[in-house]
Each structure stands twice: as structure tokens, then as C-alpha cells.
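re: ur question from the group chat, yeah i did fold both. here u go
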Amino acid sequence: MHSTQNSTEHVSTVVIGGGQSGLSAGYFLKKRDIPFVILEANQHVGDSWRKRWDSLRLFTPARYDGIAGMPFPAPPHSFPTKDEMADYLESYVDHFKLPVRTGVKVDRLSKPNGRFVVSAGGTTIEADNVVVAMANYQYPRIPQFAQELDPNIVQLHSSEYRNPSQLREGGVLIVGAGNSGAEIAVELARTHTIWMSGRNVGYVPFNIAGVVARVFLLRAVLRGLFHRVLTMSTPMGRKMRPKVLTQGGPLIRTRPVTLKAAGVTRVPRVAGVKEGKPKLEDERILDVANVIWCTGFHPGFSWIDVPVFEKDEPEHDRGIVGKVPGLYFVGLHFLYAFSSTMVHGVERDAEYIVRSIASRSNGRAHG
């Protein structure tokens, strides 16, 4: 793996993003002998996992955490750490000898003359096909009024949180009650008084690490409900998709009873700031020393200079952009199924788009 120097080159297919989605696409491209390169902005494959909070574990057991062609090397019912996942992705690249270039941040994708042009610093690559293998949460979403908070209040977005040592003594307001907010709340409740604001997102009604879950429920939920039922091919999936995209999914590991037992106090939505302190919808003012914004992300696709977006979402059918032939997406939230952003869901999506790339390449070869 290496970084590119100033150059211009032509590659049949460029994959942007070296996470599980991009590597899965690379696996299938290599199987079909389609020339390609994977561009990864981080200095090492897996760094997007390494940069998350220290105690993070995957929500899915190891038996569901391998990507195409290589099982995850851990006991099947264990829940890998984020660093174990990162190391697995690095070893995956080595095992399959995938052409990954690290430290290459793409700053523009355009299609001026029938071919895609990928610009990354001083490097320009022309391509027949481009696979954008990135989730649609790239840049932290923080409300505008956050800058009105007292400068003595420590503010972190969930993407910046690593461990309790970053915080001041005193209360913590966690804004956002999804999976990140809930997990961070339980961790911090051991050392701080915690208030958590945000609506109830629902929860998986069983212990994902329990015996019953191991034997039946995880397979039924992960492989059944999330992977086969909640898809764009079913009425239930098509109905659920807009809700999932706007509101997120349910709590997976943490349940309301867990939060309550940890001493986390649920409060209404944060409405703004008064006298430098967070103000809730019910007009209460919280005197806290820390605020953690678990408020999600912007898609972060402004660098794509190709007319494919409706609002913030690219128009596609299972990752294939019909109006811009040769452009593909994989890794997006609910790309085809609820499982599309889960590790076990990316393989199917990646294989589907690579079949399309292969048929397009064959068409060009015989055209």
C-alpha cells in the first residue's frame, strides 16, 4: 500500500473508500479480472474504525463480521472490538493482495468528456467506472446554536469522543438517543451525572449476547429481518426505508432499562442556549460541564461534481446510477436493505454492482 505522487493515469475502475464496502467491491472486481484501484483517505486501512471511541464493540457477533471470501478470525459468538475489526480489514487487503492506495483523499469527482475524472490532491485518475464506497455519514452534524454555549463547557461530537478522560468533572449532557448516544451514556454514567436528550428510537427487545439470541434470534433478525425482509424488493422494506433514513434504527445493545439502571436521566429535546447553558424544550436550563453531540452526520458528498443527487441522496437502484452510466454506490444506509450498512450486508450489494460493471465492461469490449 502506498500513496500516489503527482501523476495522471487511466484505470478501468476506481473504488473510493477502503472500508468493508470498498474492499468487498475490490474482492469481486479481482475475481472478474477487472483492473481497479481502491483509494483510501486514511493512512492505514481500518483507520475509520480505529478512530472511534475506545470501548466500542461491533453490534454483530464475529460469525457475521467477515466480508467476502474471508471469515472473521474470532469465536463466532464473540463481539469484536473496533480495533480487531480494523486489523481484520488490513489483513484482508494483504490476503487478497488488493491494490489499495492509502493517504489519498479524493477532493473531486467529475465527468467532463464521457470519462470520469477523479482528483486527489495533485493526482488525477481517469476511469470508465467509479464506485463510491462510503457511508452517507462523513461530516459531523452539530446544531448552529452549539457555538453559543459557554466556552468552558467541553463540547465533543460522537466522532471525536474516545474515553471519559476527555471530559471535565461535572455533569454531561448527551444530545441524541440513538445507539452512539446510549452506549456513550452508559459508559460515562460510571463517573459522571448524565442527562440524555432525544426521542425514543425503539430497541431490539432481547439481549444480543444472550443464549437465546445466539441460537435463534440473531439469525432471525440479522439474516432474516434485516437482510431478506426489510429490502427494496418487499412492500415492508419500501415502507420502512424512508423512516430508517430520517430517524435511524433502534437501540441494539442498550435498552431503556439499561440506561435507567446506569442512572441516566432522560430529558426533552435541546431547544437552544440560554445564558451559555443548554435549554430544553420544557424551558429547563441544564448546568453541565460537558456536552456530547450524538446528532448524526452530513452525507459529505459535496465533492461529487456529477448531477446524481436528489436532496442529499444519490438517485440509484441498488447502487447503480442509471442516469450516469458507470457510477455506483455501495455502503449507503439502506442502499438495498436494512443490512446494507452492516458488515454482513455489504457483500451482496458489492457483488451486485460488480456484476453490472462486468456486463458494462463486456459491452464496451464488444461495442
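okk and heres the other one u asked abt
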Amino acid sequence: MALKISSLPREFYFDGHKLADPNPALSIDEVRNHFSGVYPSLNNSSYTEDTTGKAHKVTFTAAVGSKG
């Protein structure tokens, strides 16, 4: 009996928007850099990961702070 390894699809979320996975070979930090052109606040964001039975969910959270 051979083992079959399969990976869960990744789902990315930021500010209430679901973002498409640009390339499954990219790391989470590379995906964040990819979308930072559209969402500049991703540059200083953190992320949390959650795994459900159907997907690996990554949620980016913008850092809250003040300038100056």
C-alpha cells in the first residue's frame, strides 16, 4: 500500500478580501510582497495561520500605529 501525500490549497485574506494564491511554490512572505503593490499596508503586516479540513488559511493583519 503506497502513501499519497497531498497538500491543502492556501487561502489568503486581507482587510476582508480574499486574495488568490499567485503561485503555490511561493512562501507566505513572498505572497505578501507580491500583493504589497496593490495593498501597501501589507508591507508592515503580520499574519496568522489556521488549517481547516479543506484549506490552509492565512490572514494578514495590518500593523496599527502612528506616524511621527
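fwiw on the second one: DSSP finds one helix and four strands in the chain. The mean pLDDT is 90. idk if thats what u expected
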